[in-house]
Structure formats: C-alpha cells, structure tokens
Design brief:
The protein has 11 helices and 10 strands. By secondary structure, the protein is an alpha+beta fold.
C-alpha cells in the first residue's frame, strides 16, 4: 500500500496554489461577487490567471495542452480553493467537464475540446441531476433518434455554472425505465442551441447554478460521448472524480475554519482569561483535530486510488466524500458556536464557510448518499 503522503512535485503544486489563491482569490473576492450580484459569478481575469498557472489543465494530457498532473495534484488545488472560498469554474470545467471528455469522449472530441479548456476559451458544465437530491441513475430526460441524429427533451437542475458554460455535458435516457443504469447516454449540447433554455439560480453560498430545459433540441450523432445508451460506467467514474475533488474542497474549508477558530479562542478573553484555556473547549478542539486528520487520509487515499485506477476507487471516493461532509458540518458548526453570536454575523467569514460547505455537501451526493453507496459497494 502506497504511503499517504504527497511527493515533492505535489507539495510544490500545493504551495503554489496556496500562494496564488490566498492572494488572487481570497474570501473578500467572494464577498465582492456576492454583494454586486455578479451575473457570471466569478472573475474571468482570475480564470485566465488560473489557466496561466496551469491549474485548469491539471487533468489534461500534455499532448492536448495540459499538465497531466493527476487527481492528487488537482486535489491540492481543490483544497486551497476550499480554504479561500475561491469562486471559479474549477469543478464544472477543469474537473467534471474534463473528466467526462477523458472517460467518455472519442480522441477526436478530446483533441477538439480539451486544448480549448486548457487555454481558458471553453467552459463546460455537467447536467446530470433532475431530482432535489442527487440520483444520477434517475434520468427522465429523453434522447430519441430523429433524422440521422437525435432529439433531446427534458430538464436538469443544479447545473453548476450552467448559465455561462459554452457546452453542457448532459445525461439522457436512450432506453430503459427511469431508474435503470442501462440506457443512459452522455452528449454535448451547446448552451445557446435552439430549444435550450437556461434559468440562472443563486445558491445559498452565493455561487451560481442553473435549471436547464431541453425542448426538441437537435443533437448530431457526433455529439454523443461514447455509444448511445452505454454511458453509465463513464458517468459514474466522472462523478467519482468530481466527488474526490469536492471532498478535497470540504477538507480545505474545514481546516481553515478550525485554524481560524483556534486563533480566535487564543485571542478572545472572558473574565480576563483566554477562551483557549477552558478545558471543555480544548476537548472539542482536540476531537475536531482528530476528525480532520481522518479526513486528510481518506481524501488523499481516494485521489490516489483514482490515479492508480484502483478497482476499489469508488468505495474510497464515497468514504472520503461522506467523511468530509460529516466533518465539514462539525467544523463549521463548532466554529459558529465558539465564535459566539458573532459567528453568523456578516462581519465574520465563518458564516460564508458554513454556507459553502452545505452546498458542496449536497452537490453530487451528500453524507447519506455516499454512506449508503459505500455500504452497497462493500456488499451490505
């Protein structure tokens, strides 16, 4: 079993991401985007800077303009994005979109699109959920053969960055019943294509998602990712890639609020004594510290398993996402309580971390979803 530590190059990437995001995309930038109700939801200039830093191409092969630095490498960027609440299309485009193209796309599709992602000229978004809770196999959106191509009809929700994506990667049913894994297809759809309507929604964390409807949208056969009706395995692995990175982002948020809370307890005095000297608070901090160490190991193991093509990678990913969800909830709740009534005021950043954590927890499967999935994969 490989040691759960970063190699020298991965540590260098982590340090570079830490420096860049803390300087160029701190929490204050999210506040500004929120207060201005920015329609894009992120800074285009920041995204181009992330392209120049190589973060956007971390998963893209070198031959197609990327760095091909692997899932552990991308995990270091995700963790630092969590620490700073950095708003960008990292999850939608550089992780989810790229993974779908790499896992389901043809070499022609990869060669046409991935260099555009790597240079920052193409934004992608995964459109896979239709219900209030994540259920990727419950697909009612229909894909029907018509005139040498296909017609697409249906509706998708929680499409992160769907309001600005140039292309949507859509799951649709070619055959089978609504909850069947067999019969699901993946396809590329231009956001501005006739019949596509997009409603921007502002989430609790001030980030943007979209409700996307498809009404008789014409899709060429060349826009299918893989064979019609046979995309489930690629979709499932794509979601594993995304969830391993979301777990990394949750880890970053949890570490940041923990460190901020400890610093506050050391500064804040009650009855002339620092709060950090109260034994009850020390016990709570010690418990949270031990939980964070578990999350670090679980997240790194999941990302390493994906890099290695481990047959049990799905189990490790669901374990990591479930544990990261659980600990992020604990960390943000403890942070609010230990900051007292001020914890949820807008003067402090803790409330912003809590809101982002709750959104990421729910995105592509919450604690219950992944705990159930882990149990099923383990044969329970």
């Amino acid at each position: 079993m490989a040691a759960l530590v970063l190699n020298e190059e991965q540590q260098m990437l982590k340090d570079a991401a830490k420096r860049f995001l803390s300087e160029s995309a701190p929490v204050s930038q999210l506040r500004a985007l929120r207060d201005s109700r920015d329609e894009t939801g992120f800074s285009r200039e920041l995204w181009q800077s992330m392209v120049e830093m190589g973060f956007v191409g971390t998963l893209i092969p070198e031959a197609l303009g990327g760095a091909q630095f692997g899932y552990v490498g991308m995990g270091q960027v995700s963790e630092q994005a969590g620490r700073n609440l950095s708003a960008s299309p990292l999850i939608s485009t550089a992780i989810g979109g790229v993974a779908a193209l790499l896992l389901a796309g043809s070499s022609e599709q990869q060669q046409a699109l991935l260099p555009q992602v790597a240079e920052g000229s193409l934004l992608l978004a995964l459109a896979v959920d239709e219900a209030p809770r994540h259920a990727p196999n419950r697909v009612a959106t229909r894909l029907q053969v018509a005139d040498g191509g296909y017609l697409l009809n249906g509706r998708k929700t929680f499409v992160v960055d769907g309001h600005v994506a140039d292309k949507l990667i859509v799951s649709a049913r070619s055959a089978g019943a609504e909850a069947d894994q067999a019969g699901i297809s993946l396809l590329l759809v231009d956001r501005t294509a006739p019949g596509v309507s997009v409603e921007r929604t502002i989430m609790a964390d001030s980030r943007n998602a979209a409700i996307v409807s498809f009404d008789g949208v014409k899709v060429a056969a060349s826009d299918l990712l893989g064979a019609a009706g046979q995309a489930w395995s690629a979709l499932e692995l794509t979601l594993d890639v995304v969830n391993a990175q979301l777990a990394g982002e949750l880890l970053g948020m949890s570490l940041e609020v923990f460190e901020r809370t400890v610093a506050y307890l050391q500064e804040r005095k009650q009855f002339g004594v620092a709060l950090s000297t109260f034994q009850a608070l020390q016990h709570r901090c010690a418990h949270l510290f031990s939980e964070l160490e578990l999350v670090k190991s679980a997240v790194l193991k999941a990302q390493m398993a994906l890099d290695a093509g481990d047959a049990e990678a799905a189990q490790w990913v669901s374990l990591a996402k479930a544990k990261a969800c659980e600990v992020a909830e604990l960390a943000t709740n403890e942070a609010v309580q230990m900051h007292g009534g001020m914890g949820m005021t807008d003067e402090f950043d803790i409330g912003l971390f809590m809101k982002r954590a709750r959104s990421v927890q729910a995105l592509f499967g919450d604690y219950r979803y992944h705990a159930n999935r882990f149990a099923a994969l383990r044969g329970y």
